[in-house]
Amino acid sequence: MKKSFPRPMSLSRVKITDELYGSYVNLVAEKIIPYQWDILNDRVPGAEKSHCVENFRIAAGESQGDHYGPVFCDTDAYKWLEAVAYCIENGSDGRYEPTADDLIDLIGRAQRPNGYLNTYYTVVSPGQRWLNLTEGHELYSAGHLMEAAVAYYKATGKDKLLQIACKFADLICEVFGSGQKQCQGYPGHQEIELALVKLYHATGRARYLELADFFIKERGVRPNYLIEEIQRRQGNGLFKEFADYDEEYAQSHQPPVEQKTAEGHAVRALYMYAAMADLAIEQDDQQLNEACLKLWNNITTKRMHITGGVGTSGHLERFTVDYDLPNNSTYCESCASIALMMFGQRMASLTGDASFYDIVEKSLCNTVLAGIAVTGDKYFYVNPLEVWPENCKPSTSMSHVKPVRQPWFPVACCPPNIARTLASLAQYIYSQDDLSLYINQFISSELETSLEGAKIKLKLESSFMQDGLVTIQVQASAACSLKIRMPGYCDYPDFTLDGSGVIPTVENNYAVFILNGNGEYEISMKYEVKPHFVAANHRVRADAGKAALVKGPYVYCLEEVDNGSELSNIFIDTTANIQEGMPLAGMPGRLPVIKYSGKKIISSIADDSQLYGKPVWKFDDVNLTAVPYCLWCNREVGEMLVWQKVERLI
Amino acid sequence: MKKSFPRPMSLSRVKITDELYGSYVNLVAEKIIPYQWDILNDRVPGAEKSHCVENFRIAAGESQGDHYGPVFCDTDAYKWLEAVAYCIENGSDGRYEPTADDLIDLIGRAQRPNGYLNTYYTVVSPGQRWLNLTEGHELYSAGHLMEAAVAYYKATGKDKLLQIACKFADLICEVFGSGQKQCQGYPGHQEIELALVKLYHATGRARYLELADFFIKERGVRPNYLIEEIQRRQGNGLFKEFADYDEEYAQSHQPPVEQKTAEGHAVRALYMYAAMADLAIEQDDQQLNEACLKLWNNITTKRMHITGGVGTSGHLERFTVDYDLPNNSTYCESCASIALMMFGQRMASLTGDASFYDIVEKSLCNTVLAGIAVTGDKYFYVNPLEVWPENCKPSTSMSHVKPVRQPWFPVACCPPNIARTLASLAQYIYSQDDLSLYINQFISSELETSLEGAKIKLKLESSFMQDGLVTIQVQASAACSLKIRMPGYCDYPDFTLDGSGVIPTVENNYAVFILNGNGEYEISMKYEVKPHFVAANHRVRADAGKAALVKGPYVYCLEEVDNGSELSNIFIDTTANIQEGMPLAGMPGRLPVIKYSGKKIISSIADDSQLYGKPVWKFDDVNLTAVPYCLWCNREVGEMLVWQKVERLI
Description:
The structure is a homodimer of 650-residue chains.
Chain A: E1 7-8, E2 14-16, H1 19-40, H2 52-59, H3 74-89, H4 97-110, H5 119-123, H6 133-136, H7 138-156, H8 160-175, H9 192-203, H10 206-218, H11 225-233, H12 266-282, H13 286-302, H14 334-351, H15 356-370, E3 386-387, H16 414-423, H17 426-429, E4 430-432, E5 436-439, E6 445-451, E7 454-463, H18 464-467, E8 469-476, E9 480-485, E10 494-497, E11 500-502, E12 505-507, E13 510-515, E14 519-526, E15 532-536, E16 546-551, E17 554-559, H19 560-563, E18 570-572, E19 579-581, E20 593-605, E21 612-613, E22 615-628, E23 640-641, E24 644-646
Parallel strand pairs in A: 5-9, 18-24
Antiparallel strand pairs in A: 1-4, 2-6, 3-23, 4-5, 6-7, 7-8, 8-14, 9-13, 10-11, 10-14, 12-13, 15-16, 16-17, 16-24, 17-22, 17-23, 18-20, 19-20, 20-22
Helix pairs in contact in A: 1-3, 1-16, 2-4, 3-4, 3-7, 3-16, 7-8, 7-9, 9-10, 9-12, 10-12, 12-13, 12-14, 13-14, 14-15
């Protein structure tokens, strides 16, 4: 019998009622979808030009003009469609369905008769199709088309976009493969692999799964396809930053199954690892499974910021080396943390272990939420853990760090990626296999689903970040099991079942409740979720002697608006009293601020007009206010700091 | 009467006998000149290709082949010639004079009949002369030719190179200027301005001084010549990193006389400021004088590392913003500190104030000396204050930092610049005006010179870095004054004159001794030069809560070879006992090492296999050994750290 892996929940079965996340889900529907539609149509004054929809019109022959934007510009439309689909499926809003249908029609008209679909190559260089896999992003763009198509089909039952995607996928299946007349290349930017698995699930066509498998297996084979392709082009490339292209950058230095450390461009890496986990599930492949575990462990125990931010090099958005986690110059692309969520979700499915969701949660509630303003119309691409706005200028090495969220970007992958992630948040809350329902996040919500033989209605109410309490009311029509993730960062909680204390079995970091049969049940968990300081491994040079404040999965930070400038002069006492304070006014989710006292250097040398001198440290006592990292920079521009110096270590 | 400014001493009058600097001066003659000659002729296996001499052969029509190397490659030969000239003039070695004569002959044959001289433009794109001042470096290269020519003429009396330089300079005087048929451009990379002043001094031809003045006055005038030139080229440039060219980069954003903060490429800026000081002296120009003072103060009180390193952005070797002094990602090009020495020397001449020599000394004895291995054949281009070799890789944002000195560079400005600086060190030790001899550095040496009416023989013996003692024996043929710099970083010393305690007058940070007439005098100074810790201004975010160890002008650092890895985990007690220890074996100059104790975090969380956790700080007591920064990385590759965390600030 084939092993039963827990699968993410369909969005239509879940209604998110959570104060914090519910507001973000609604924000996608109410604000982000319309805003991004305006952006894609170049109707937002002052924002970076997108030209995305117009590119499709030009490709369809319905408008004159030049293509504008990066080669992967089409994906902004695809991710927008995917977000619209999720809004329809999760029930938050269907207003944009007609607009989406029109866009899908336009996309269909831009598709070439043979199925090929890419506005850049259609408009700008039709003769160059598939000749620049390293940089051309045709397969990457196709992947996002497939993801959108599957989502829109699931949400609406309309198969027009699915047909478009399948027609293109079929062409790709013809072009790529191990056959003599086929191309033995693979994407320079991975993403189509996981999309092909989705397309396989939506259509049942095994060829899509086989192509995903081909792309993973062919990668890293000698001679290196991408390097040979670059040599064939003799230096004529699309991106100047690829002049020093190396194999690690796109994870083609080894066959993926042999890779042990996370290397190269973080988003490419993590989309690929997610696809590897997909294939490990689909094919029950032990070697891929082990490779995924090694890569996961390398990232989460050596190459990840406490915010779930990954890819710590300002140069090409890359992974670097173990314990290289600079706070101010790091990259931590919003998309990379989204991709880490995707990888973690699949690893949880693959292993049945809840602990992967700790990292999913960490990435979500810190870096991904920080990636978007609470108003929905401004975004961070780069998510450092320390910001000094004055030195984030083009003339410094810090020009990749924007001290304020931006309306849009020349490379605009992050904003629609955040939108589709928030709109599909339910998939990260619940999963199920044949016999069990898994609760993976404490996000207040309602669920109706069916397991093998049992219908379940469930209501989850969480005030986890206020008082540590999570209550689950379940109606089950028959016996089934409920598995509730136990976060690794909390001590064992007090459980009750129908009001009586219980000590459930724990399996794979899930508390397991066997519901005996038809009936109503109430389970509660009371966690202690107090704010406290954590340290980093002593090998993390950037954090030596420092501590970060966390409460549950949320990382806190100091902002200039509350604590003045020169945050690096603050010293804290990690053993002193910490108080929770009222949430920030106007911010979603009632996340408390945290107050504590510290000391701040106000001068360090006798003559303050000089640069160096005999140490004469003068301190002020200061009252500090830390706010959730995910909400930083929603009030005023200013300095921000996560890792704070500890006053008395010894 | 024209004001008498102190002028640097002619090298021929000084014999450096200093243990440390004497060994470097000899190293230039014995090792560096031959090594760099081999490099320029591509005879060093494993080093970056230079092709410099071969380029001249090709330009002279005496060899076939392509030009190789950057557009300013000729300057490597010019700076080598300049260093050879200084070795001849300072008496350390004349062996390379025949080789230099041959090279000069070759350079002469590569010169075009109209005087134009530049191998790149002659060989590669003769039609493009003077059309790309922004990037083409023709004027920069001409400047280095002039400097070499003046030096070689002064050293040998041979005027062949001077004739070549003047012929080119005359052409440049024709091409550039305010006349209707002349070009109103100016160099993209400044340096010719100060070279023209030297050429004026060597030849007495005022047109060279006037051209220097024109280049400074024309710069920053609207419309901006360089920006218009870039627009005319329509994106066809030489350097990809100039895609985002801005006016500040080459200090053309304002007329230099109006500039108040140091902006843009540090070497360009400082060569220009040096020329501005030259012109302020030559023209007794108060406005230029004031501009120079403002720029100097901005640099030395807000934008300079404690090592005298400047230009703190890894992006384009630039100045950034006030107090932005990152330790690991900084640039601090060796050439920039050489240029700072040049600017400081001229400011001391302009103002008659010794304090400028504090910065000259700081730059010299830290960054410039660190730029070269004690073996003379390896060089740093970039001089950070904190190095973790593992993360200095192409895949990180730290690829500009090389953790070990290199045999040569694709852009090889630094090695020959260090050579010519060390070979001409005497110019920084002594200066004189009509009536006074100035002693600006405590570098053991002997001097014979003449003031107006007085001949002086002097012997300076310094064990300043060992016991703080400096002794000066003087024979004067007539009354004159001797002005001895009093370093700003020391307390007032004990002075003796002929064995008796005296308290000399202090003017402009010089101790003034009036020698009454013909006779012999012995002056001694006993300073207290103990190692001690200093702090940075509290606005320097990178150094908050840290201290650096200094002894006199020398900055010390911790190296992995003495103190293990993870130097960032070390905490020091700035009030504890500090001991001087034996100098490092095999290193020049008997600079003591410094020993003290500290504590080192050996683990910070309970489970060392994890990345984050509850703080559980564990420390080891450690015995630390700090070594002079200028000698770091002469033993083993490893971590290095200047700014150390302080254990008990409060």
